[in-house]
Design a protein that fits this description.
It comes from Echria macrotheca. The protein is of the alpha+beta class. The protein has helices at 31-39, 70-76, 131-139, 143-146, 160-180, and strands at 3-8, 16-17, 44-50, 57-59, 90-91, 99-102, 108-112, 119-126.
């Protein structure tokens, strides 16, 4: 387990969207730069597990296998994702208890509606061979700042559960040091 959080209904007056994006390929990437990243082995997967019906995730199936088309390239550079419809996009509909696993470099976005209750567990799992891209995807969210101070005392004395949790923490801290020095691993996306 790498990243784990909860996606919730926004506290807002209106609907809003994230821009169309890939998690570790900036919109400014050239087609050859995209292809270089997409050809690397995938050492992690993201997942969403819905506690309520969830229709917030939209994806372009198969886009994690290729560079963006000219139309996709233009749409991913827009500041407002509603300005143009993404060709081939599908809405992922999850019923309570459904889970979806996906490559974080698939073209995707979140669509947030304050009128619809949302509680979806979101996370990623990965392998240590994932290198700096994995470190950046996980530790950019501030995890690297506080993870070293996590106290697993609530898990009891010398239990297997506590040993697993402490091992995960130690590997995250080491990954941050190896890849980003003092916890500064950069950001996958800017803005």
């Amino acid at each position: 387990m790498e990243l784990f959080n909860m996606l919730v209904r926004p506290d807002s007056d209106k609907k809003w969207n994230l821009v169309w994006h890939r998690d570790d390929i900036p919109p400014s990437a050239t087609p050859s730069e995209e292809e270089g990243v997409l050809k690397r082995e995938a050492w992690h997967a993201q997942w969403n597990l819905a506690l309520y019906r969830d229709e917030a995730l939209e994806v372009v199936p198969g886009s994690h296998l290729r560079a963006r088309t000219d139309v996709e390239r233009r749409i991913t550079t827009l500041q407002n994702g509603d300005e143009e419809e993404m060709p081939g996009a599908v809405k992922v509909i999850l019923e309570p208890g459904d889970v979806v696993f996906y490559d974080s470099n698939i073209l995707h976005r979140g669509v947030y509606d304050p009128a619809v209750e949302r509680m979806t567990l979101h996370g990623s799992v990965g392998h240590v061979r994932g290198s700096e891209a994995r470190a950046r995807n996980v530790l950019q969210h501030g995890v690297g700042v506080y993870v070293a101070d996590c106290d697993f005392g609530c898990l009891g004395g010398e239990t297997e559960e506590r040993a697993v949790a402490e091992g995960m923490r130690e590997r995250l801290v080491a990954m941050g040091r190896e890849r980003g020095g003092e916890g500064d691993v950069g950001y996958s996306l800017e803005g």
